[in-house]
């Protein structure tokens, strides 16, 4: 598939392999194309965050390979992975994780500085981003003075600042009230539409699930359903394969 | 910028670490200044009040202080030395060793025959007299005794005593003297064994005529010592020409040893500082585990995380440094001018080691850079452990906390 962004092949993550093995992610096969807006759902402990961490290069699978835009990230060294994340993946965390000593603008700028982008270009990008998240007037405000919803919008701006290949969001609305969650989803949908940005987010939140164009359900580390019709056959095959094991 | 802002996250903690740096620097400066002041004071006493810069003797004289080993009786040697540009003062002394006897007992002493007017300037003997008026030009057989000896022998001004010694012909001579004054120097052991009589009185008894045993040379500048000593050795090759360092090697050794001690104390202070920094920076990193994990997740390289911790420590150190230096220099400067009275620590004890009880701390300004580098170096070394701890954080683990 030419527009494939994420291509995970038979990936597994096992804890306690020597004693009582626990498969946090079990033989998962997942493709995500450019511009998708997908939700990863499932009960607590189903492996959503672990799967996001594996796809995001924050953790390494024990089995399988993960290709991001054709690059097998499981083969990259620790330093190469850091560099790869910097240029290809945007992260949004459940608890915002903004740097408290930096202003909203500086938080979003942080990643651009790491990339060595010139000041003029940074300024241009930040103005555009803050306009998109409707927080132009809060650019010089520190996170502690912002609401949870505003902080998460800054986190989204930070994730998108470097124009990554895709954005991984781990329970982005978990700490937000209904209005803030709805607002955030509007912004993410808009960015998805305007910039054709690929989003994959883990969630429990029904409002998020309803807005997603594709819903992948994970139970006990396995994908049980995927609303993307192009993958359903493959999932069935995975089950058959696992049953044999 | 981030490192600078991070240090103000927990103001109280940062202020405590800055104060630690400041106190560490202050303590370092104070210790170095105090020791330097003590040693300078001791060296000044040795030069100005005990030995002078250079002493000249017959080579055999100091073996057993035989009074027959006199320097040439004419005035040529002192005159030549006096004409030298770097020389401040030349004093002639006749010296012999003998027994001091009073009604209460006896004690071995070194009898120094001096020219009072010159000696008062050469060894500040006039200033040391605490009782009595000193030598009277119209009286003979007067003697100055040290306070410690006077206390031991129960001598007062006007007391009579008998000095017994051998003359240049080997005959034993006894002569009665009257105490014209009691002196007290900063070196109690010397006070106990040195008595002073007029050179002409002693020479008459020793049968040495106009000759003498010792030429004491005081220079205008301490730094000229090696040059003048070398020059004198060339002019008077057959004589024993010694500097104060050779005559009092224990003082020279003490200066060097105390210099080393001051560095040991400095190292102890720096150790305490290092543990303070380690503790603070570890706490700072543990508190920010999740944040550091997030930074690495976003693409911050480990070297940048390391540098962040390093810069935070350097900023904390740099922020504390001016206060420490300022406090150190101001306080040592004040005491350098007014003197630090340590008599509460035991005047007798200080005197028994030859130290003045009033110390004038003197910080060797050329060591300021070294002290600053030591403190900064310690801070950097101390932050290495917390920095490596931060380096080893795995983003997944860190974000989970």
Could you explain the architecture of this structure?
The complex is a heterodimer of chains A (245) and B (401). Chain A is of the alpha/beta class. Chain A has one domain (4-244): 3-Layer(aba) Sandwich (Rossmann fold), CATH 3.40.50.300. In chain A, 40% of the residues lie in helices and 26% in strands. Chain A contains 8 helices and 10 strands. Chain A has helices at 48-55, 78-88, 104-115, 119-132, 148-161, 178-195, 206-211, 229-244; strands at 4-15, 22-33, 37-41, 63-68, 71-72, 89-92, 166-170, 198-203, 214-219, 222-226. In chain A, the strands form 2 sheets. Chain A has a 6-stranded mixed beta sheet, with helices on both faces. In chain A, a hairpin with a 2-residue loop joins strand 4 (63-68) and strand 5. In chain A, helix 3 (104-115) packs across helix 4 (119-132), helix 4 packs across helix 5 and helix 5 packs parallel to helix 6 (178-195). The model of chain A is unreliable at 231-245 (pLDDT under 50). Chain B has 401 residues and is α+β, with helices and mostly antiparallel strands. Chain B folds into 2 domains: 2-46 and 251-400, no CATH class; 60-237, no CATH class. Chain B has helices at residues 2-6, 11-51, 61-64, 76-82, 116-122, 125-128, 147-153, 188-193, 199-206, 225-235, 244-247, 249-287, 289-298, 302-338, 347-352, 368-391, 395-400; strands spanning 54-58, 87-101, 106-114, 129-132, 142-146, 160-166, 172-183, 194-198, 214-219, 239-243, 340-341, 358-359. A 6-stranded mixed β-barrel of chain B has the order 2-3-8-5-7-6, surrounded by 4 helices. A two-stranded antiparallel sheet of chain B has the order 11-12. In chain B, strand 2 (87-101) and strand 3 form a beta hairpin. The radius of gyration of chain B is 31 Å and the shape is elongated. The mean pLDDT of chain B is 87. Chain A binds chain B through residues 53, 56, 58-59, 79, 82-83, 85-87, 91, 93, 95, 97, 99-102, 110-111, 114-115, 158, and chain B through 2, 5-6, 8-9, 290-291, 294-302, 304, 395-396, 399.
């Amino acid at each position: 598939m030419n527009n494939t962004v994420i291509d995970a092949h038979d990936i597994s993550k096992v804890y306690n392999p020597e004693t009582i093995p626990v498969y946090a992610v079990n033989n998962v096969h997942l493709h995500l194309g450019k511009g998708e807006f997908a939700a990863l759902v499932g009960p607590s402990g189903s492996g959503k965050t672990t799967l996001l961490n594996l796809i995001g290069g924050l953790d390494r699978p024990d089995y399988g390979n993960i290709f991001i835009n054709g690059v097998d990230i499981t083969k990259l060294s620790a330093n190469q992975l850091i560099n790869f994340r910097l240029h290809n993946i945007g992260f949004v965390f459940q608890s915002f994780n903004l740097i408290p000593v930096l202003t909203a603008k500086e938080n979003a700028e942080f990643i651009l500085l790491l990339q060595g982008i010139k000041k003029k270009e940074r300024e241009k990008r930040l103005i555009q981003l803050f306009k998109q998240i409707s927080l132009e007037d809060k650019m010089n405000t520190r996170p502690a003075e912002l609401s949870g919803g505003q902080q998460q919008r800054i986190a989204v701006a930070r994730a998108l600042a470097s124009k990554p290949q895709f954005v991984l969001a781990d329970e982005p609305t978990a700490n937000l009230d209904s209005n803030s969650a709805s607002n955030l989803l509007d912004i993410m949908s808009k960015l998805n539409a305007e910039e054709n940005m690929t989003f994959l987010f883990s969630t429990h939140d029904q409002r998020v699930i309803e807005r997603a164009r594709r819903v992948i359900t994970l139970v006990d580390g396995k994908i049980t359903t995927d609303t993307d019709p192009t993958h359903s056959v493959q999932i069935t095959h995975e089950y058959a394969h696992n049953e044999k094991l | 910028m981030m490192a600078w802002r991070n240090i103000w996250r927990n103001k109280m903690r940062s202020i405590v670490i800055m104060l630690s740096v400041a106190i560490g620097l202050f303590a370092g400066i104070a210790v170095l200044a105090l020791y330097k002041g003590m040693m300078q004071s001791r060296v000044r006493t040795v030069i100005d009040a005990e030995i002078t810069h250079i002493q000249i003797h017959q080579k055999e004289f100091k073996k057993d202080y035989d009074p027959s080993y006199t320097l040439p009786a004419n005035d040529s040697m002192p005159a030549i030395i006096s004409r030298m540009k770097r020389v401040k003062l030349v004093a002639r002394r006749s010296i012999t060793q003998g027994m001091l006897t009073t009604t209460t007992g006896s004690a071995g002493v070194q009898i120094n025959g001096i020219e009072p007017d010159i000696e008062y300037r050469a060894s500040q003997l006039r200033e040391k007299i605490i009782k009595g008026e000193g030598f009277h030009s119209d009286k003979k057989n007067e003697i100055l005794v040290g306070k410690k000896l006077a206390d031991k022998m129960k001598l007062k001004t006007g007391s009579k005593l008998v000095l017994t010694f051998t003359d240049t012909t080997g005959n034993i001579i006894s002569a009665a003297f009257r105490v014209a004054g009691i002196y007290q120097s900063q070196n109690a052991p010397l006070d106990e064994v040195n008595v002073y009589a007029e050179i002409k009185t002693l020479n008459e008894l020793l049968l040495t005529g106009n000759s003498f045993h010792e030429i004491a040379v005081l220079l205008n500048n301490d730094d000229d010592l090696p040059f003048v000593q070398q020059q004198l050795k060339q002019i008077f090759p057959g004589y024993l020409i010694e500097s104060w360092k050779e005559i009092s090697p224990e003082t020279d050794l003490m200066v060097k040893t105390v210099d080393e001690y001051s560095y040991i104390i400095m190292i102890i202070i720096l150790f305490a500082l290092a543990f303070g920094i380690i503790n603070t920076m570890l706490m700072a990193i543990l508190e920010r585990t999740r944040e550091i994990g997030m930074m690495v997740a976003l693409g911050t390289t480990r070297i940048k995380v390391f540098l962040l911790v390093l810069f935070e420590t350097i900023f904390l150190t740099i922020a504390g440094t001016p206060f420490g230096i300022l406090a150190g220099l101001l306080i040592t400067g004040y005491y350098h001018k007014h003197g630090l009275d340590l008599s509460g620590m035991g005047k007798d004890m200080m005197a028994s080691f030859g130290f003045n009880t009033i110390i004038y701390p003197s910080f060797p300004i050329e060591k300021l850079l070294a002290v600053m580098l030591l403190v900064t170096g310690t801070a950097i070394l101390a932050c290495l452990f917390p920095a490596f701890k931060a380096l080893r954080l795995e983003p997944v683990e860190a974000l989970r906390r």
